[in-house]
Amino acid sequence: MARTQALMIQIATGDARPISKQIVDGVRMKIATAELKPGAQLPSVRGLAQQLMINPNTVAKAYAELTSEGWLESRQGLGLFVATPRQRLSDAERERRMDDAVQAFVHEVIALDYPPDHAQFLVQPRQRLSDAERERRMDDAVQAFVHEVIALDYPPDRALARLDEELRVIAPKKKSA
Amino acid sequence: MSTPATDYVIETVALSKRYGRKLALDHLDLRIPRGRIHAIVGANGAGKSTLFRVLLGFLPPTVGQARILGRDSQRLRPEDRARIGFVNEEHTLPGWMKVAAVTAMQRHQYPRWNQHAYDEVLGHYHVLPEQKVAQLSRGERAGLNLALALAQGPELLVLDEPTLGLDVVAKRAFLESLMYSNAAEQCTVIYCSHQMEEIERIADNLIILERGQLKNMSAPEEFCARVTHWVADIPFKGPDPATVPGLLQLQRLDGLHHYLVLDQDEDFAEFLRASGARSIQSMPVSLDRAVNGFLTKNHAAPAQPQRQH
Questions:
Q1: Which of B163, B188, B201, B291 should one mutate to test binding to chain A, selecting the residue with the greatest count of A CBs within 10 A?
Q2: Residue B184 exposure: Cα atoms within 13 Å on the Cβ side
């Protein structure tokens, strides 16, 4: 039986995100959703490179970043493993970065003129992006926020609560009577 | 007296090559360090072919110097050439020769012949020793060329559009051999291609040539980060394209201005605002968009007189 756990991630060329970043995001997501548990062994640099059909140096770069951020740990002579979760940032630092992520998301909601409560929106004279473009931009904003929540190892329900708080501030102005 | 190995496998100093009125290489200063995979991209006529003809000693420079593996390109000896492997699109091998004969010939010529490297590459293909080269498919010929080149144990492997016209199976086998075989790991690889999808997968270093000049040398993602896509709502015509800083491409779509720009930061938003933009957004782009935008830059604003600032 193989000791290495399968790493079920994909990468896409022609994406605005560099391949190494896609790997980092993919692995973090697997760890955050507990598909990869602490102690699980990751594929070798070469193995993952062959799986994804990419240059091994790109995998090495992603693994190095994940290791320095504390998601993975190297065990001498054995390979790379999912690290046991531990505080990587101070509480104050995490709160500050969560603040930044919440603000960035809220600003995007405002900039896109997106209805904070997901209600049916009216066609505003100021609406300049196509619906598809707005949805795509909102997708990106949501993804970015979720990735930051995972990267900070921030409790998701608390993150949602913070977001809810901020969005309520702008919601009343947009609700139709 | 032999020159000790330098840190650069390829080095040009103010290299220029002129054909009549055309300047194919224009004071090119290129230094490619040993190791890893270096991709060279450029539009046709950018100077890639000329560069390699000069580096391999088939053409003299008009001005300047070219060195390959630490040796002057114009003074390459057979033992220097033996350290360089070359695979190109035509995969030129005598069509009438059997695979076994071609292989025997090469094995005889190169004292450092690595049969394992040959087998490792050719093992991906169903090539029989008694087949004539002309009977092989294009993909099999490419695989054979790569197997022969890697078995020679080169320090430098130059590939010029090697996967052009290959089917997906053959292309995959070729790239796998290039990225994962031990023999390929031992040498420095130079990969000339137009196919950005491949380059994004395999390149450690992205070299962009344009009109005989070096325009970029960096990791692919570093180049990609230099290009951004801005969308602005600007009433009326908007700024004169000739005044837009770093402009690579301009499109007017559904009443919006789409700008693809190089090396612009948040100050670009100020420029757009000053030009009357009412809403401004920006986003990163993919590598192929960045490179293609960069290379087609001169077609951004047709029939506009160039203004010097």
A1: B201
A2: 25
